[in-house]
């Protein structure tokens, strides 16, 4: 709605500094108060069926009955408004409902700050400094707790039947438990759907990361509608591939090459690390699996005398190392590492690092879900050439790719 210039000039005729506009008693709050009160008057007129002072109200059985004051918290501070009443007491305003103490948009600010890792105390200080509004810790908790119903629905929502790529990984955080601080794992499943878009399939909180818990998670994914996964990208956790294949027997399990290299270099002295890393690169950048095996043999002859466990580890995990080598480079880049999910973990660590230990699982779920909503806004496709990738998947996986594509 366009506002006439003459009205703006009249409103701003006494404007001298920003405080006159945005301060606690500034124009914005006064204007908001006036508009809210005028809107409430309009609602009451609609409810009664006649305007104020109109003769149409005579003998209608209901009429205006004064006003009551209430304080309302808004995005620009706290304001006191006059709410009109009717004599019969059945007027139910919609703009500011009965019992409502905060104006629409205010809860969103609290949730936004919470999602960015601000503690309850941080939020209290920010609201006081910026808007002159004092908030109790209980009030802020009530606002943030309101998202839990949404979290529960999200965590149990039905999923697509087919995901070409699924990344599975976990991070660790601290939790209070009967007066003790313990470590808990946050399990994350990130899928790439048939449109090429990333989608977090769920978050789970459990004790230390283990294949048994992952088995529970992939079983839940199946129960929520997933019938097929083409490629599952995971780290080198013992028993992890077997857990996936027991539920999705046709899935190709791709071990994270970055994890493989890190584990290989863990016990290599600094003086040899660069050379060992360069020779390992010859393996995972090979043109195909046969060339990679030749490179592994060359690596073994060169380094087994010093570091025999490295080639032994790659041979032991070979079937999980080589699947990505069957694909062109634009697919290889997306599946040879779990970096797609590690970027989510970095975002989670950013919002949890100020908190020490969480009091319970619900508090952690709440924060991670809100942080995830922020992260999703910036996501791009992990494979830009998605149509070309689908053609590759159609060749490799044949009838498993839905016909509707």
Task: Show the helix and strand layout.
Blueprint: H1 5-11, H2 18-22, H3 27-48, E1 64-74, E2 77-86, H4 106-115, H5 120-131, H6 137-145, H7 148-155, E3 162-177, E4 180-192, E5 198-206, H8 211-223, E6 228-234, H9 240-247, E7 252-255, H10 257-265, H11 270-284, H12 289-303, H13 308-316, H14 318-321, H15 329-335, H16 339-352, H17 361-376, H18 386-397
Parallel strand pairs: 3-6, 6-7
Antiparallel strand pairs: 1-2, 3-4, 4-5
Could you explain how this protein is built, in words?
Helices cover 48% and strands 17% of the residues. The chain has a five-stranded mixed β-sheet with strand order 5-4-3-6-7, sandwiched between helices. Strand 3 and strand 4 (180-192) form a beta hairpin. It folds into four domains: 1-103, no CATH class; 105-146; 159-256 and 342-405, Nucleotidyltransferase, domain 5 (2-Layer Sandwich); 257-336. Helix 4 packs across helix 17. The protein has 18 helices and seven strands. The chain has 405 residues and is α/β, with parallel strands linked by helices. 28% of the residues are buried.
